[in-house]
Design goal:
Elements: E1 6-11, H1 15-26, E2 31-35, H2 41-46, H3 48-67, H4 81-105, E3 109-112, E4 115-119, E5 122-125, E6 130-139, E7 143-145, H5 160-163, E8 172-176, H6 180-191, E9 195-199, H7 211-223, E10 227-229, E11 234-239, E12 245-249, E13 254-257, E14 259-262, E15 266-268, E16 301-303, H8 314-329, E17 343-345, E18 351-355, H9 358-364, E19 368-375, H10 380-383, E20 389-396, E21 402-408, H11 412-424, H12 429-434
The structure holds NADPH dihydro-nicotinamide-adenine-dinucleotide phosphate.
């Protein structure tokens, strides 16, 4: 008989927490899970999944235009924002139900409650005003949007959390930020017919990506009519008449909008959890510091997912949760391999990328060869669209190994998921060359790039 109520108690039922809890329960552990909002976490409830529905919705905006070149006429089209939001919410409810069912079927107890740590083995459940004890505690509370509260009027803006529940489609949107969320939502609102202005503090949006990607996405945003203002931040936001707000920028410009959207990053959700009081070390961003087995500085407390601020992506949190459960409850010590994780930005056109950016490869490898192509895809020949596709391979010249692959263009995320298998397995450029092209596709360009790229002198 255990001295504790649970073998594992998980705080946070998002992707990482649910995977860890389900697996641990399947391995025979007695598991409790507390969630203060909705089971499913950011990805399912107010992140990747609802975002992708909004992306699909907004792509129709361009598709109606493109269809004309193919003989279709789409007159008097209209769009109903609330219908989209209701349909999206129905699907999120369905997924939320599946997540709850899966946890219960695995044998876990679910508590709809905020939970905080009392000590290294005790969790306080606020909704029930009682404590439970556990041999092992897993922190899987994820992250939350960060808003720059030093900006006067910052509260007049919304984050991605609220954007999924707007009561009406805005007319003019101003987005702060140049990362994943800023670019994705700028494209969503543009595709739905809004006037969009993006304000980014640096020079190159998506600056952690290969520079060719940021340049290509930047020019595609502009081509689609998104106004991009770089090297500027919000200095002040003022309420004007009705829904209107005026945003004062650091470059002296003023822009008006009925929706101000903060997308300047997310922070690990650790505030008020009682972590530091229980001896758990946090880093300067407030993330739980963990070792390669996701163990915190307290031996009974582990953490997975965005709360650890390692690679903040759903599939990574799932891997971390699974590796934790394998290690702790299946006697099979497991670590996550963080190399060659494919990534996508669901901009329009989207980005798919895996492995080293050119600048990263040049820092680490002696000789790097670059292969790249930039073309108008076949579909656009009849639509008149000037949208282009970028494909780029980064190759270690000494071994011929493909270190990175970067694509901007329709279906790039779908392509990169498959290419990532080969790149992770150590594919060489010669293997690309020996693979027969599949014609006519855009992806065939990946196996027909023969000439090394030489930068213009
Ligand atoms: P990102 O880190 O991608 O982008 C944050 C942006 O805000 C950057 O452009 C950053 O500028 C800018 N910024 C940061 N601080 C300030 C400031 N004080 N003033 C003005 N601008 C600032 O974060 P997101 O919030 O977009 O996304 C969070 C994470 O969620 C991502 O890192 C990703 O891991 C995940 N995500 C993944 C998605 C996907 O897989 N498709 C989709 C959405 C989110 P700078 O670049 O100069 O630092």
């Amino acid at each position: 008989m255990s001295d504790f109520d649970y073998d594992l108690f998980t705080i946070g039922a998002g992707s990482g927490g649910v995977r860890a809890s389900r697996l641990a329960a399947q391995y025979g552990a007695k598991v409790g899970v507390a969630e203060e909002y909705r089971v499913g976490g950011t990805c399912v409830i107010r992140g990747c999944v609802p975002k992708k529905f909004l992306v699909y919705a907004s792509e129709f905006g361009h598709a109606f235009d493109d269809a004309k070149g193919y003989g279709w006429s789409a007159e008097n089209i209209s769009f109903d924002w609330m219908k989209l939001i209701e349909n999206k919410d129905d699907e999120i409810d369905r997924l939320n139900g599946i997540y709850i069912r899966n946890l219960k079927n695995a044998g876990a107890d679910i508590f709809q409650s905020r939970a905080t740590l009392k000590d290294k083995h005790t969790v306080h459940l606020h909704a029930e005003n009682r404590d439970v004890t556990a041999k092992t505690i897993l922190i899987a509370t994820g992250g939350a949007p960060w808003i720059d509260e030093s900006v006067p009027g910052h509260e007049l803006g919304v984050s991605s959390n609220e954007a999924f529940h707007l009561k009406k489609l805005p007319k003019h949107v101003v987005v702060a930020g140049g990362g994943y969320i800023a670019i994705e939502f700028a494209c969503i609102f543009k595709g739905l017919g809004c006037d969009v202005c993006l304000v980014y503090r640096g020079e190159d949006i998506l600056r952690y990506f290969d520079r060719d990607i940021s340049v290509q996405v930047h020019s595609e945003l502009k081509r689609r009519g998104i106004r991009v203002i770089t090297q500027s931040v919000f200095e002040k936001i003022e309420q004007c008449e009705g829904d209107q707000k005026r945003i004062y920028l650091s470059n002296g410009a003023e822009v008006d909008a009925d929706l101000v959207f903060w997308a300047v990053g997310r922070k690990p959700a650790t505030a008020g959890l009682g972590l530091e009081e229980s001896g758990v070390e946090l880093n300067k961003n407030g993330a739980v510091v963990v070792d390669e087995y996701s163990r915190s500085s307290v031996d009974s407390i582990f953490a997975v997912g965005d709360v650890t601020d390692r690679v903040n992506l759903t599939p990574v949190a799932i891997r971390e949760g699974a590796a934790f459960a394998e290690s702790e409850f299946n006697n099979n010590p497991s670590k996550v391999d963080y190399r060659f994780i494919p990534k996508a930005v669901f901009s329009q056109p989207p980005v798919g990328t895996v492995g080293y950016a050119e600048h990263e490869a040049r820092n680490e490898y002696k000789n790097v060869d670059i292969y790249k192509t930039n073309f108008r895809p076949m579909k656009n020949m009849l639509t008149g669209s000037e949208e282009r596709v970028l494909m780029k391979l980064v190759v270690d010249a000494q071994t011929d190994r493909v270190l990175g692959c970067h694509i901007v263009g329709p279906d790039a995320p779908e392509m990169i998921q498959c290419i990532a298998i080969a790149v992770k397995a150590g594919v060489n450029k010669a293997d690309f060359d020996q693979t027969v092209a599949l014609h006519p596709t855009a992806a065939e360009e990946l196996v027909t790039m023969r000439e090394k790229y030489k930068a213009p002198i």
